[in-house]
C-alpha cells in the first residue's frame, strides 16, 4: 500500500492524518465526473440543509474570491460559505441521482 492509499481498517485518526499530509497533487480525482457545460446548463441549485459542520478546507484564491464577490453582489444569497455549501450539495445530489 502506498502512503496515500486508505485502508477500510484504518482508524479515523490515521485516515485524518494521511489526508492532512497529502498534497493537492496527490489527490486522485479519476473517479469524478468532469463538470462540463452540460452539467452547469442543467444544474439546479439545492438549498442547504440546516445542519452544518465547521471545517477547514483549502480553496484556491481565485475560486474563493469569485464566491465572495458573487455572494456579495446577490442579496438573496446569505453569504459565500453558504453558496459554496449549496454548490457542493447540488453536485452531491446530482451524483447520487446518476448512481441510480
Please summarize what this structure is:
The chain has 100 residues and is mainly α. The chain is 49% helix and 0% strand. The protein has a domain at 33-99.
Please tally the helical runs, counting DSSP H or I stretches of 4 or more residues.
4
Q: How would you sum up the global shape?
A: globular
* Largest β-sheet summary: none
Which structural class do the helices and strands define? mainly alpha
Arithmetic mean of pLDDT: 85
* Percentage of residues assigned to helices: 40-55%
Distance between the termini: 31 Å
Order of helices and strands: HHHH
Architecture blueprint of SSEs:
Elements: H1 12-21, H2 37-42, H3 61-73, H4 80-99
Helix pairs in contact: 3-4
Describe this structure in words.
This protein is mostly helical and 100 residues long. It has a domain at 33-99. Helices cover 49% and strands 0% of the residues. The chain has 4 helices and no strands. The chain has helices at 12-21, 37-42, 61-73, 80-99. The protein starts with 11 loop residues before the first helix and ends with a helix. The relative contact order is 0.11. The mean pLDDT is 85.
Amino acid at each position: 500500500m502506498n502512503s496515500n492509499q486508505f485502508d477500510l481498517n484504518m482508524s479515523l485518526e490515521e485516515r485524518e492524518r494521511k489526508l492532512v499530509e497529502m498534497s493537492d497533487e496527490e489527490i486522485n480525482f479519476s473517479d469524478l465526473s468532469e463538470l462540463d457545460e452540460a452539467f452547469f446548463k442543467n444544474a439546479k441549485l439545492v438549498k442547504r440543509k440546516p445542519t452544518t459542520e465547521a471545517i477547514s478546507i483549502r480553496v484556491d484564491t481565485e475560486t474563493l474570491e469569485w464566491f465572495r464577490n458573487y455572494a456579495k453582489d446577490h442579496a438573496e444569497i446569505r453569504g459565500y460559505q453558504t453558496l459554496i455549501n449549496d454548490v457542493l450539495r447540488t453536485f452531491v445530489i446530482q451524483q447520487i441521482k446518476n448512481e441510480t
